[in-house]
Prior knowledge:
By secondary structure, this protein is mostly helical. Helices cover 79% and strands 0% of the residues.
Amino acid sequence: MSLRTRIAKEYQKCFVISAVMQVFFLGFASLTFDGGQLSRLVIVSVVVYCLMAGFVVARHPFNPSHGDLMVVRSGFIVVFAAVLGIHAVSTVFSA
């Protein structure tokens, strides 16, 4: 029994681009002096992105649409912006 699942070649380039972005964001967040808040937000964004990309790939593993490739390639930026916005709004309304 093999746990390896084949996916379309188009996804691979998108995952590499996204992984480079995530490593860049994690590296930048680790250099900020905010007590680890930005690092936690980036880690939450990475987890949410991984779940989202997993659902997208599970939906169309062999024949991705243009939208699927766009979500896998640059969805992390959107997820990070949403997490950052939710955190900012919750910080404003909690005080």
